[in-house]
Amino acid sequence: MVRVAVVGATGYTGLECLRLAAAHPEIRVTCVTSRREAGRRLSDYWGFKPYPEDLEILPPEPETIAEKAEVALLCVPHGTAQEMAAELLSRGLRVIDLSADFRLPDPALYESWYETPHRFPHLLSEAVYGLPEIYAPEIRRARLVANPGCYPTAALLPLLPLLEAGLIEAEDLLVDAKSGVSGAGRKGEVALSFCEVHEDFRAYKVASHRHTPEMEVQLSRAAGREVRILFTPHLTPMQRGIFATIYARPRAPEKEIYETLREFYREKPFVEVLPPGRPPRVAEVRGSNLCRIGLKVDARTGCLLLLSVIDNLVKGASGQALQNLNLMCGLPEDLGLPRVPLHP
Ligand SMILES: NC(=O)C1=CN([C@@H]2O[C@H](COP(=O)(O)OP(=O)(O)OC[C@H]3O[C@@H](n4cnc5c(N)ncnc54)[C@H](OP(=O)(O)O)[C@@H]3O)[C@@H](O)[C@H]2O)C=CC1
Ligand SMILES: CC(=O)N[C@@H](CCC(=O)OP(=O)(O)O)C(=O)O
User: Fold this and answer.
1) H or E element at residue 243
2) 329 part of the active site
3) Fewer beta carbons within 10 angstroms: which end of the chain, N or C?
4) Residue 2 contacts by C-beta under 8 Å, 6 or more apart in sequence?
């Protein structure tokens, strides 16, 4: 049994880690933290008791977390994960950070998008980008894994193999993505309340979202040259889910693009490539750790459309974190993780 701490256990990704860990045969959550709920029993707060003994919610103190766990899942806002990661690593824990704190390898790039200097730049170069379909060998050996953002997960899974194989142009890539409201976290904000979100549909952070450089770093690595993308995120009145529609210029026929993606993901347990012309639906991945990819070349314009869906809380966050944990602990990559969606 791997003893795991969920730091920030009362937020959406923390609670999702608890839900998934409860069904995992080799994980035992031994420590849960929250500043506001410290002192309460987890069963009282959450309404469930996954193990015979109850857990007390603790304040997020590195010393205590290190006594109770060997791996920590940091489900806290970016900016706050940095120090916690450094403290836990120095105490011998392995860390999977769900926040954006360790995803950009370059401290100057981090500072320009997050408007504050990174306090542990040496850890930025050590951190492994936690996209298991691409970096599994590095993740197996890592002490610190930077779990990808939800939008980058949805966009990179279709794009990286095609760029790497030279089957799409590296210019004029457009990522138009829609997220469910849980993507914004569990905080109380008027703009995210029911009456504001229900029946609404909005773009936000237009041409300025901080997932843009995260995607560009990975795309540039795959293309072997600097790649720029246009990325527009939208908020849509779903609880969970991301739907990314990606526009690219193909350098090969549709059939070759399809077969290349199929082949790349043939032995990867959580990515499914659908036949050309069959669009995926968010409902097909809700609650599961799957990413489903559809594609079609538009015969009139010659443009390639890639359609990618994930559950932002599972493959976009907590499920991917446990997939990384499996790799880091020498367990089968898919152990204990759901492939079957909550459909409809
Ligand atoms: N929601 C999503 O779909 C995704 C989220 N992420 C990232 O994962 C992280 C967690 O997201 P999410 O669960 O949505 O966030 P929430 O706002 O829902 O939860 C945040 C959690 O962190 C705790 N927390 C907040 N501030 C601090 C602090 N200063 N020190 C220690 N603990 C703190 C909160 O409890 P308390 O305030 O009581 O301490 C709470 O448990 C974020 O970095 C987010 O950007 C990544 C991918 C997808
Ligand atoms: C709908 C919504 O607000 N989504 C969040 C992204 C969630 C995520 O992946 O966040 P991190 O990069 O912080 O981990 C946003 O746009 O900021």
Assistant:
1) strand 242-248
2) no
3) C
4) 26, 27, 28, 70, 71, 325, 329, 331
Buried b (16+ CB within 10 A) or exposed e, 218-236: bbbbbbeeebebebbbebb
Q: Is 15 in the pocket of ligand 1 (CB under 6 A)?
A: no
**Position in ligand 1 atom list of the atom nearest CA 101:** 43
Residue extents of the structural domains in the chain: 2-148+315-328, 150-312
The residue contributing the CA closest to ligand 1 atom 45 is 99
Tell me if 130 CB under 6 Å of ligand 1. no
pTM more than 0.95: yes
Fold annotation for 2-148+315-328: Rossmann fold (3.40.50)
CA–CA gap between residue 151 and residue 128 (Å, rounded):
18
Low-confidence stretches of the chain (pLDDT beneath 70): 344
Q: Is the CB of 8 under 6 A from ligand 2?
A: no
Beta bridge partners of 175: 231, 246
Q: How far is the CA of 98 from the centre of ligand 1 (A)?
A: 9
